[in-house]
Amino acid sequence: MLSIRSTTIGCDGRSGATVPHTAVDSPEQRLALRVRAMRQEAKDVLSLELDDPTGAELPDWEPGAHIDLRFANGVERQYSLCSDPGDRTAWRIAVLAESPSRGGSRYVHQTLRVGDPVTASAPINHFALAPADDYVFVAGGIGITPILPMLQEATRRGVPWRLAYLGSAGERMAFLSSTQLAGGELLLVRGDVDDRLDLAAWIGAPSAETGVYACGPERMLDALEELSAGWPRGVLHVERFQAKTFGESQGAESFEVVASRSDLVVTVDRGCSILEMLENAGIGVPSSCLEGVCGTCETAVVDGAPEHRDSILTPDERESNETMMICVSRSLGDRLVLDI
């Protein structure tokens, strides 16, 4: 009979206040890279080329993937890979200068230089390009980054595609001269000179065999999710750079989490996260964003009903309850069993 240890440690290791979080990962999953090149792609947008200083090839990746990038100042952020997946000599990302900055974009634009070391995770993909008869892409601003290699892959597959690339002004739209934009139907919408795009009219009525992929600001993605209510299930795929806005949790005020592989039970109260409680009990869980955006803390669910509050899982994935993002999601009932 399995004996499960129990703990009631609070969010601060004592009473329930939130404590600072340190990203957790496995050393073998981390790559020591350097900045090979930097380029101004548009106003307030810098691209970085990252390579292995030893000359080793970088891991394979597929369109839609991102990496967790950690800088020398300790800041870690997630960035979409936007280069050619077939080029394993270097990876390219693009960084928008945000105001206010949480530390990542300011460091890149003001401090980082060619030759500087960075630490990267292996590629992670929660926005993979599934097979389809045709594709519709919508990119808003820096949201063009994960879309670029998708266009390239759709062209390689011989699948027709359309892209609406929306920006506040032409000077702020990165990669306009990229060859990755060739091969399909491109619509540029520059907010300073063009009329606002009617997304419903432009997209039309997609069939069940169409893949609609979108990345960009919250307002644009929310509008697309509303439109998709009348589309075939599973047609729309979105990637968010910012977490979705949720109301108050409708789940249990307090619940138990059984860590089935660690012989441990933790109690999670309101104001605490599953991730915090597991870490305070000594279980290191790979994690990064703490907002349900990056997917690093995705954990398999053995039993129980999660209250999904992430910005990654599709409706079908939520209904299956096979996994959850333990940095933000909670439990609808009084007990969850996780494979951890």
TrEMBL record:
InterPro entries listed in its UniProt record: 2Fe-2S_ferredoxin-like_sf, 2Fe-2S_ferredoxin-type, 2Fe2S_fd_BS, Beta-grasp_dom_sf, FAD-bd_FR_type, FNR_nucleotide-bd, MRET, Riboflavin_synthase-like_b-brl
Cofactors named for this entry: FAD
Statement: the UniProt record of this protein carries the keyword Transport: no
Residue span, 2Fe-2S ferredoxin-type domain: 255-340
Alphabetically ordered keywords of this record: 2Fe-2S, Flavoprotein, Iron, Iron-sulfur, Metal-binding, Oxidoreductase
UniProt cross-references to Pfam families, sorted A to Z: Fer2
Keyword Metal-binding: yes
Domain FAD-binding FR-type: 28-130
Record-given protein name: PDR/VanB family oxidoreductase
Taxonomic path: Bacteria, Bacillati, Actinomycetota, Actinomycetes, Micrococcales
